[in-house]
Amino acid sequence: MAPWFPSAKSRRTPGEPLTESIRVLADADTPALRALIARDPVSNIFMDAQLDAIGGAGPASSGSFVLGRFDGGLLISACWVGANLVPIQMTGEDAAEFARVLVPMGRHYASIFGPSAAVLGLWQGLGEGTQRAFDVREHQPLMVLDAAPQVAPNKALRISHEGEFELLLPACAAMFEEELGYSPLAAGGSYYRSRVRSLMRQGHSMVDIRDGEIRFKAELGTVSARATQIQGVWMNPKYRGQGSAAAYMSAVAGYALSLAPVTSLYVNDYNAPALATYKKVGFEVVGEFATVLF
Length: 294
Prior knowledge:
One of its GO terms (molecular function) is acyltransferase activity, transferring groups other than amino-acyl groups. Pfam families: Acetyltransf_1, DUF4081. It comes from Paeniglutamicibacter cryotolerans. There is one protein chain. The protein has 294 residues and is α+β, with helices and mostly antiparallel strands. It folds into two domains: 22-132, Aminopeptidase (3-Layer(aba) Sandwich); 158-287, 3-Layer(aba) Sandwich (Aminopeptidase), CATH 3.40.630. The chain contains eight helices and twelve strands. The protein has helices at 30-38, 45-54, 92-102, 116-126, 165-180, 190-201, 245-257, 272-281, and strands at residues 22-24, 65-71, 74-81, 84-88, 111-115, 135-145, 158-159, 205-210, 213-223, 228-235, 263-266, 284-293. It has a twelve-stranded mixed sheet, sandwiched between helices. β10, α7 (245-257) and β11 form a beta-alpha-beta unit. α1 (30-38) packs antiparallel against α2. The radius of gyration is 19 Å and the shape is globular. The relative contact order is 0.16.
């Protein structure tokens, strides 16, 4: 997932109808979109945070916009269209309808992510277009924690500060490369660097640094008033297998819960050690995400 990649600049008109049931949302649709998000603030956290950032449901200056599907005048599902595609309260039937609208636009995306049925439904329809995926992760358990962690936290974990950027960036890039198979800095990485700096400025980057070496780091990749989402979890390979991951994650979760009443994360289903660590801390599986990477 790469939400820092620039969006395509094609402009859409607020309220523009695309089919009988789907149109581009306008700022007047903001209350309806907020109500839709509120049905599942954990799964919809990306859109919740984006809405807070841009201020309304209408097209953003970046070229990003939100499509809405209506039934009898009521907003029943939506889709964020920007650098990424992100479904909001979307059924499989909704996904097929949105895909039929999206294919002719000819846009390219960094990823599609969100609840698995919606993501895979979108991808099935978008597969008819020109963009090809390099990885499809169909099963990513969505886990939440809304109570005190069940493991004592590692008190060495703290918020990073901007003066540590040059030390932190290689660790962030290493995590990214382990996860996706390529370096975000290979072509210069200006947008990735900006993303890391932004998280640090917001106080959403956590580290344990000792003797000039990062032992562990994680970020709150998305934050809203109702939820947070933990991303970018990385343990220095020198310290893996020593049983320290749960205490670090407990510290991350504790900080996240000081910002919102629930924190979440999603993880590849084949990552058994991570799943075991998160469950030990107290996270519970509540659903399934999927990610399509381009």
